[in-house]
Amino acid sequence: MTNHMDQLDEPLHFGRALMSWILPGLGQCMAGHRRRGIFAMIAILGMFFCGLLIGGVDSVDRKEDPLWFYAQAAAGPIAFAADWANSGLLKTGRVGELVESPPSNPRAAPTMVSTFKTVTVANEVGILYCALAGLMNVVVVLDALKRPSALAQGGWKGS
Fold first, then answer.
1. pTM for this prediction
2. Domain count, the chain
3. Is 152 within the bounds of a domain?
4. Of all helices (H) and strands (E), which one includes residue 95?
5. Does any domain span residue 104?
6. pLDDT digit string (tens) for 41-85?
7. Residue 112 Cα distances to 71, 75, 101, 107, angstroms
8. I need a surface site. Which of 29, 37, 61, 81 has the fewest CB within 10 A?
């Protein structure tokens, strides 16, 4: 069992934290805690992909939902790739047909939306799943920042 003061003296591992942001769980694997890293990777990426599966790729949108995107961006570059797919493929009409959306203001010009845009509660659930995956990754990044390596804890445990 480690002493409380020993944990305070542990240096911060910024490289591992960055690697955990790029690919969730990679920082834990680099520290020798492979099982912990693989479980984190499966959980975070699984939740993010479930969000995309439920709500569609338009669940990640930094222009229409900027506050939600802050949480989603914490999941790593995968959130930026999903946002690119949304803005570069769906909103431009490269995938799906663009149709007029009924305007909320009768005097405003109608907006064009893709036929692949999800407009039901499923989109909101997808947004929430992707945001929760990002917030889970914040915890994993902070864990990688402070967790000592497996060798420093008294041997290679793989957990």
1. 0.80
2. 1
3. no
4. none
5. no
6. 999 999 999 999 999 888 999 988 899 999 999 999 999 999 999
7. 27, 29, 6, 16
8. 81
